[in-house]
Amino acid sequence: MKRKDIINLIIFVVIFAFAAYRYSKQTYITQRSEFVMDTLVEIKIETKSKNTEQILESAITLIQDLENKLSFYKQGSNIWNFNNSVTDSLIIDDDLAEIFAVSKELYKKTNSHYDITVGALTEIWDFDNKLIPTKIKIEESRSTTGHNKLTIQNNYLHKPIGMKINLGSLAKGYIIDVLVDHLKQQNVISGFVNAGGDMRIFGREKPYKIGIQHPRSESNEMIDILDVGNMSVVTSGDYERYFMQDGRRYHHILDPISGYPSENAISVTVIAETALLADAYSTALFLLEPKDAIELAEQNNVEAIIYFIITDEIEKLETQGMRNYYERQN
Asked: Other CB atoms closer than 10 Å to residue 55's CB: what's the count?
C-alpha cells in the first residue's frame, strides 16, 4: 500500500470515528406545555431517542391518569367519589400509600396544623366570589377534620361521615415525582417539570436560576434568586389565591385548627430531593410559626426560606443549608 493510500485510510478512520462519536453523543431536546391539574405544566426533556413527541404524549397521559385518581375537584376522580359517598371506602394502592404516609407524618410533626382532611373547610371558602363563611359553618367544617380519625382495614381507607380529603397540598408534587421516574424509564437524560411553580430538575450538569416571586409585588418582581441543580423547588404563598376585605388578606392556605387562612407567613420556599416532600413541606411550614417551621425543616433535611411580616416589614428566616443555593455572581 502506498504511503498516500495509508494517509487517506488514516484520515478516513479518524473521520469515521469522530462521526461515530458525535452520533453516540447526539441528543434531542424538546419541550411541551399543557394545561392539566388546573395549572400550566411545562416539561422539557433531553434524550437520545428521536421519539420525543411520543415520550411527552405518554407523560401527559400519565399526569391525566393520576389526576383522575387524586383530584379533589375533578368530578369522578377516586378522591371525589370517596368524598361524595359514591364509594364508602378507598383502596390504598402504592400511590396513596406513599401520599398518606407523608401526610400522616406531617400531621403529627405539625401538631395537627397540616391536615389533608380539610376538604369540608376548603369547600365553604369561596375565594372566587370573595365570600367569608359564617363562624357556624367554619366550626361545623372544623369538626369533620382530623387525620387521626382515618382508619385503614385490609388496605381500605375509611373516614367518618362528613369528612372530606383534599390532597392539593402534596398530590401535585407526587405526580411530578412519578412523571420524572417515567421519563427516566424512557431513557430521558435530563430535564425539568414545572407544574404551576412546583418544579423538579433532574440529570443537569449545571443548576438553573430560579426566582422566588416577591410576595407583595404587583409586577412579578423577584425577592430572591436561587441556583438549583437536581432537586425539587416548591413555593407556597398567600398571594396565589386570595381576596382582600376590610384590610385583611384571606388566602387559600387554611389552618384546620382555626378554620381560617394561616397568618404566620406570606411565602415559603422549600428545596427537597423529591417534589412530594417539597410540596408537602411548603404548606406544612407555612402553617407554623416561622421559628418552629425552620426548626422542623432542619430536623427533616429540607431547606427552606420563610418570609413573614413584622410591623409592616417583610422579614425572613432560612435554614443554614439554604444559603448554598443563593445565586452566585459570576
From this structure: 22
Q: Could you tell me the sign of the dihedral formed by the alpha carbons of 220, 224, 229, 234, in that order?
A: negative
DSSP state of 42: E
DSSP, res 130: T
- Contacts of 27 by beta carbon, 8 Å cutoff, 6+ apart: 46, 47, 48, 189
Extract the C-alpha cell encoding 187: 431513557
What pTM did the predictor assign?
0.91
Q: Per the structure block, which three cell numbers stand in for 212?
A: 422566588
Q: What are the extents of the domains in the chain?
A: 36-330
Q: Report pLDDT digits (tens) over 55-78.
A: 999 999 999 999 999 999 999 999
* CATH superfamily of this structure's domain 36-330: ApbE-like domains (3.10.520.10)
Mark out the alpha helices in the chain (DSSP H runs): 3-25, 52-70, 78-83, 94-109, 119-124, 135-142, 171-185, 275-286, 290-299
Quote the cell numbers at residue 190.
435530563
